[in-house]
Amino acid sequence: MSLPLFALFIAAFAFGTTEFVIAGVLPEVAQGLGVSVPSAGYLVSGYACGIAIGGPLLALATKRLPRKTLLLGLAVAFTVGQAACALAPDFTAMLLLRIAVAVAHGAYFGVAMVVAVGLVPEDKRGMAVAVILSGLTVSNVIGVPAGTAIGNIWGWRATFWVMCALGVAATSAMAVLLPRTTGYQAKPAGLAREVRVLARQQVWTSLILILMLMLGQFCLFTYITPTLMEVTGLDESLVPWVLLLNGVGATLGVFIGGKLSDWKLMPSLITMLALQAVTLAVIYAVSPYPVPMVVAIVIWGGLSFAIGTPIQTRILAWTADASNLASSLIPSGFNVGIALAASLGAAMLNAGYGYRSLPVVGAFAMLVAVLVAVISQVWEGRSNATPPLTAPAE
């Protein structure tokens, strides 16, 4: 991993940790701010909305800023936001601060992925995207458990102070290690052009694939703990270890997906989507049996993140001439998909279908994704279209 990519990775790790660590300290936060745990849950959904809505708007508003300056500004906003969260006097202030940090989060990942692919040769784009994504997976494997433990020992405010320190480290790393010229375009495209590139079928079909991928992941993952306990029969103390294994699988999957993206992107993507459909069907079949269920969950986690890498690499390749809006829609698409998946899962459970039915929904979503990907590839082949060239570096 090159030093500039490592700096981007640290910031991605910081943003990923602060997004997900709130779940680990939610009861303590609720008690400390004088609200119920369900009410405190809005700190999670509010963050997702901030990413999905605010991220693209901020990316467009700041498109004329030099990319290094923007990335440093977003990292500073993250750092200040964590300190403010640690000092939040009440729930309303905490919610507004979380949403503000989430807006920076959404803009950061869109910009960071564009910068990352601009720092490497064209045949290494997939691995560059994988490095940024690995910040999210590693945050779940290391950052969230560590942040939760700190909160349990010294209180939830200590967790946010540690996040503030991590923000300082990320800001310093990018200030020192990122080159002034990032490979980004010198003259940012106008809004009309930013919108027009979304009409390229490779872009909007990839956004559909993101939604299907999240349905395949979060219909089940949102309710993975009760599924493992009630359907598989695992003891509650074993569930964190299963989630840890899932996170390890996801981290490996990111880099496998990066390698495959740089090799044969669309054939690899279609194959992995089909394998994920099979894996979710296997999860449904083996869910009452602990050992095969755990193995299937690890494979499922690895495939989910392996699939995410080529989808995002494809969007970045096909919007290289006007990437501000499209790149910022990537994290938005993921968070909209997560929200839809969680809501669909809740609706199914409320309708009485039970936890075991959830992977079936994911399997069907993956079959839809296979169909969309195949149609997109055939369409592209018949049109003889090629990805646009990146505009001159700033």
Task: Write a structural description.
- With 394 residues, this protein is mostly helical.
- It contains 16 helices and no strands.
- The longest helix is centred in the middle third of the chain and has 30 residues.
- Keywords: Cell membrane, Membrane, Transmembrane, Transmembrane helix.
- It comes from Mesorhizobium erdmanii.
- This is MFS transporter.
- InterPro entries: MFS, MFS_dom, MFS_Efflux_Transporters, MFS_trans_sf.
Essential attributes:
Growth Hormone, Chain: A; 394 residues; mainly alpha; 16 helices; cell membrane; membrane
What's this entry about, in short?
The chain has 394 residues and is mainly α. The chain has helices at residues 3-24, 26-33, 37-40, 42-61, 67-86, 91-118, 125-154, 156-177, 191-196, 201-221, 224-231, 239-263, 265-286, 290-318, 324-350, 358-383. The protein has two domains: 1-183, Up-down Bundle (Growth Hormone, Chain: A); 192-386, MFS general substrate transporter like domains (Growth Hormone, Chain: A, Up-down Bundle).
Q: Report the helical percentage.
A: over 70%
Please indicate the percent range of residues in DSSP E strands (runs of 2 or more).
under 5%
Global geometry: globular
Largest β sheet strand count, sense and barrel closure: none
Integer tally of domains: 2
List the helices and strands and how they pair.
Layout lengths: L2 H22 L1 H8 L3 H4 L1 H20 L5 H20 L4 H28 L6 H30 L1 H22 L13 H6 L4 H21 L2 H8 L7 H25 L1 H22 L3 H29 L5 H27 L7 H26 L11
